[in-house]
User: What shape does this take?
Amino acid sequence: MSAVILHRLLLAAALSFAALAARAADDAAFPDWSGQWVRIGGSQFDPSRAPGLGQQAPLTADYQSRFEALLRNPPADGIDNSPTALCTPPGMPRAMIAELPMEMLIRRDMVLVMLSYFGGLRHIFTDGRRWPAELEPGFYGTSIGRWDGTALLVETRGLNGPRSFDASGLPLHDDNETVVTERISLDATDPDVLHDEITTEDHALARPWTVTRSYHRSRGAAWPEHVCAEEHQRIAVGREIYAIAGGKLTPMRPGQPPPDLRYFGAESRR
Amino acid sequence: MRAMLLAAGLGLAIAGADAEEVGPYPAWEGQWSRVGSGQYDPNAASGIGQKPPLIPEYQAIFEAATADRKDGGLAYNATAGCLPAGMPRAMIVYESMEIIVTPAVTYIKLLYMNELRRIHTDGRGWPATLTPSFIGTSIGEWEKGPDGRYQALLIETRGFKGPRTFDAEGIALHADNQTVVKERIFLDAANPDRLHDEVTVFDHALTRPWTVMRTYKRETQPSYADFYCSQNNHEVTLGRETYFIGEDGLLMPTRKNQPLPDLSAFGGRAP
Assistant: This one.
């Protein structure tokens, strides 16, 4: 073995030890976010305010009108006025309501947020990457984060739609140019409480809207398996939403017309 | 010196790939995609070519599903209605899967239907009762290799609900959902970018345990796309009939002279 090769191997060994030592130091520096995080507060986006119009979301006039019209004439049963009623995932920022418990896995180069609701998974990259020129739109978007001490600062872009802030149907803009920034950290006095300060910038809003969601830690609890198709047996046919019950289409509101069956021929109608 | 050279080699490996052995655990972390096609046993032809060791009752169900499928029906396939694949079908890995290894839990996140397997490796025993789920409850145990490092994960999965099928061809698992799935997951001895899963299913629809081997390749450029059944699903199953929702959002038949959907719940109202 030549002296040059030996030198390179020893240098590589030194670098690998340094990397492992740095990793050990990094691992020790990460906060303990293990366990199951359970939502504190209601399912409306801002848990400190009443749902619906009580949220006082800073909507533009156009989107305020749209929201009020939706509340006056809700689709289907009015229980869920949002895309999740048809099993479209909640996406960001609504996912962080954490309708069902979530788990946070801290890795050296990313933080994974595993959401039981809709089986959502957020990858928050903390490897120092920059924003690429183009983003593939997704309901959870693309998230880049960095550690500020023991707090994780996250920016999320590249979102897909339709999305709403919560089940009331409180809308985000159709252009999907939402940008969500978050600061996730443990409570200063209670290590079993996690906070997420969420600021949403969106063209449906007259100004950025900041809310803080909190979660309490549970350990050893069972994880739910959320299957939307099992929970919501619904389909959209044309402009109407129907339920499926006992293998049959059924109306979801009084007087709802049955579906248009124009594509079925005479033989089908016998 | 020998130890330093060994460390140098390890360091180069660490620097040269995303795959990284951490502690005694094998380098599984990252995204993997299926090798081979989407039938349950990738080493046998699809459909009846799978030759599943079914009891006569479930062989008849399989043959009926095969005939129905040729006629456009999908009622036998619960994923057509966006129910999850569940185990063992989930390990076909129609889309991709991401593996995260921690001392207490190995996570397998399946993009298809967004299913998540938590394989508990903390030494826990089986609880007296299990909450049934499509993906089941999994307990694993690491198997050590000659070098003392973990080389394979042995998994047992129980506690199911249904309906589940082995694949999209209509090979049904028993309706009693008493399935037990045993797996051995390990890296290929010659290629560390290949992962194998030897899957053995015990089920009352089978005359004997059925073992297949699935293989996955490591994605060096992982892509974190969304998969949402509701967005892509144009099929709707009503009773035994499967219909199609066209581009204009209206219901369409999937075969000639298909009966109309039952609209009796609308009290005779006209569309």
Remarks:
- The longest strand of chain A covers residues 209-218.
- The radius of gyration of chain A is 23 Å.
- DSSP finds four helices and twelve strands in chain A.
- The CA atoms of residues 133 and 158 of chain A lie 11 Å apart.
